[in-house]
Task: inverse folding
């Protein structure tokens, strides 16, 4: 049976009552808090016991202090005299416990406790504000991408999930900052009437929901990319997550090592900051080197996929100097495939198509309009007109053919299928048999 456990705890930084209640439940289950840090909280197994916990603020406290300053030690002695034992501390947060049935509260003036909390959590608020300032332009760029090319946005797992991650990250920061000031306003009213500080359990719950959503979105993105055979983005995402987690762990280890050796607070902060830059450079360099080596040795090479319809298959001819390019992207909502192939020796032997596979029916018209507007925006077709054509040879639900400015037929078609929207262009007039072949290959029939 294990005697210790480590947990990553998520609480709103001002939910002191929620932290105390959580520790009381853990103690009743036989787990006593032993140490807390920025990343992990460590518990040791004890006999189940009924304890009362109190979380207090010491604004001048720092995670770089080798030992508590004199005024903080005096505070500990005063708390011990009234039956409160120091359980753990980190930076400004001081956690006490007592087994007395009706303990005297440590904080006897709730209004003063509120102002102390406000001073102590300044860095927390600044951190959330900094994330908002840094990440908001990133999210706005993603929104701009969604507005300028909505079909392409929804057809890209990277674009779609990254925007969702950014949105919930910003919402988390806004929830913490906005929640704090709303809670502070409520706390001021409560303390003015002589009451205790209100709890903030709903803010902590919302924080955990948003964190769970971010984690779920990240997992879905990795699954989506892996299902498409995109090994490199998956590996990069996993390495980036491991990089951040590893960097935080190593920086904390450096800081704690310097604390145990009695390094003064300011020197510890400087050395830890320098170490964080060095470790960041070394870790990222190692990740980059590993990724380059994996790519150069073909470890992450994706198996080539054959297009659903090739130039030679549709034309019945074998190109002498074929040039081909294709691209594809997909998300759980939409997939897009673009293909272009031509024979450098025959100007009329070329094939170009774009296929949207719609997995969310509400996006179908968006894809159809994207193909139609994109076609008519091209210089060569900007004065052209799409006119209804016979859909039967294509096996389609609807077919549109492009006519040029002179009213002449072109070999450009827009085709509607149940779950696919297709734009097909060819360098020669297609026969009915070729139309049926293209419809079978591209329409999902």
Result:
């Amino acid at each position: 049976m294990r005697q210790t456990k480590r947990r990553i705890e998520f609480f709103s930084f001002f939910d002191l009552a929620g932290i105390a209640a959580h520790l009381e439940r853990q103690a009743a289950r036989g787990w006593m808090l032993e140490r807390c840090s920025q990343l992990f909280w460590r518990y040791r197994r004890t006999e189940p016991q009924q304890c009362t916990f109190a979380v207090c603020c010491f604004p001048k406290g720092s995670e770089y202090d080798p030992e508590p300053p004199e005024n903080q030690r005096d505070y500990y002695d005063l708390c011990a005299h009234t039956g409160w034992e120091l359980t753990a501390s980190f930076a400004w947060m001081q956690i006490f416990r007592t087994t007395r049935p009706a303990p005297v509260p440590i904080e006897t003036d709730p209004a003063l406790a509120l102002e102390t909390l406000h001073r102590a959590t300044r860095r927390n608020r600044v951190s959330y504000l900094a994330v908002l300032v840094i990440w908001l332009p990133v999210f706005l760029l993603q929104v701009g991408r969604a507005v300028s090319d909505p079909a392409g946005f929804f057809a890209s797992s990277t674009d779609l999930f990254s925007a969702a991650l950014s949105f919930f990250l910003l919402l988390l920061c806004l929830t913490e900052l906005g929640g704090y000031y709303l809670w502070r306003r409520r706390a001021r009213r409560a303390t003015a009437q002589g009451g205790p500080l209100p709890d903030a359990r709903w803010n902590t719950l919302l924080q955990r929901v948003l964190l769970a959503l971010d984690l779920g979105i990240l997992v879905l993105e990795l699954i989506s990319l892996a299902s498409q055979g995109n090994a490199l983005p998956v590996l990069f995402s996993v390495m980036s997550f491991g990089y951040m987690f590893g960097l935080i762990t190593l920086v904390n280890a450096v800081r704690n090592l310097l604390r145990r050796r009695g390094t003064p607070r300011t020197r510890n902060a400087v050395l830890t900051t320098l170490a964080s830059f060095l470790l960041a450079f070394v870790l990222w360099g190692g990740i980059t080197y590993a990724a380059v080596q994996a790519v150069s040795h073909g470890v992450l090479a994706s198996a080539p996929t054959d297009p659903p319809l090739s130039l030679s298959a549709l034309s019945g001819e074998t190109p002498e100097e074929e040039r081909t390019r294709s691209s594809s992207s997909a998300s759980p909502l939409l997939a897009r495939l673009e293909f272009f192939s031509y024979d450098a020796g025959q100007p009329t032997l070329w094939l170009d198509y774009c296929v949207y596979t719609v997995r969310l029916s509400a996006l179908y018209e968006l894809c159809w309009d994207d193909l139609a507007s994109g076609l008519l925006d091209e210089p060569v077709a900007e004065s052209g007109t799409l006119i209804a054509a016979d859909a039967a040879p294509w096996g389609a639900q609807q077919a549109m053919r492009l006519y040029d400015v002179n009213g002449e037929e072109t070999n450009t078609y827009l085709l509607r299928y149940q779950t696919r929207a297709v734009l097909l262009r060819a360098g020669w007039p297609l026969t009915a048999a070729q139309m049926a072949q293209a419809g079978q290959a591209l329409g999902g029939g």
About this structure: The chain is about 50% helix and 20% strand. The longest strand covers residues 346-358. Residues 12 and 198 are 13 Å apart (CA to CA).
